[in-house]
Amino acid sequence: MYKEEEVGLNILSFHHVGLLVERIENSIKQYSDLFGRANVSGIITIESQKVKVCFVKISEASFIELVEPIDQESVVYKLLKKRVNYYHVGYKVADILSAVSRLEELNYKALEFFNSEAFEGKRCIFLFTPGAYLIELIEQ
After folding, report:
1. CB 3.0 to 4.6 Å from 18: which of 51, 87, 116, 139, for a disulfide?
2. How are strands ordered across the β-sheet holding 122-128?
3. What is the pLDDT of residues 1-37, one digit of tens each?
């Protein structure tokens, strides 16, 4: 049974689940029907990742991030072609360097830092969990 006091790492604050989509405009229509157009952001291009994204607010502080590769050079293009749709879980962190250091101690594998247009140019980083899942940390 889960007990809140047993939770170890209290540095991550859930922000979003990233979903890969073939056509972001089609997905915006679908999610607008479910959550209302007012809860869907505009489309943001993240040049360093070669993707377009938008966020769908599903609760007060929880979002779905729709991610469409811009071209075949995007890292996620091959994943999408393999029908991988659930891409990553995003977390906000107060101190991104400390969070990465702590996660690496727990055998997470960090990729490269990047500044994301989706988060006002703040630093972000993807990490693989020990179970090979992908998470994203977003600097607050």
Report:
1. 87
2. 44-46, 51-59, 62-69, 13-20, 86-93, 134-139, 122-128, 109-116
3. 444 444 456 789 999 999 999 999 999 999 999 999 9
Tally of CA atoms within 13 A in the half-sphere of 23 that contains its CB: 4
Q: Where would I find the H helices in the chain?
A: 24-35, 77-81, 96-105
Nearest-angstrom CA–CA distance, 88 and 136: 7
The torsion angles phi and psi of 118, rounded to 5 degrees, stand at -70, -20
Which amino acid is present at 12?
A: L
| Four-point Cα dihedral 15, 17, 22, 24, nearest 10 | -30
- Alpha carbons 111 and 126: distance in angstroms, whole number: 6
Question: Residue for token digits 């101190």?
Answer: 95
Closest CA to 66 of 47, 38, 42: 42
Q: Encode pLDDT of 59-73 as tens digits.
A: 999 999 999 999 999
Q: For residue 67, what are its two tokens?
A: 């991610």
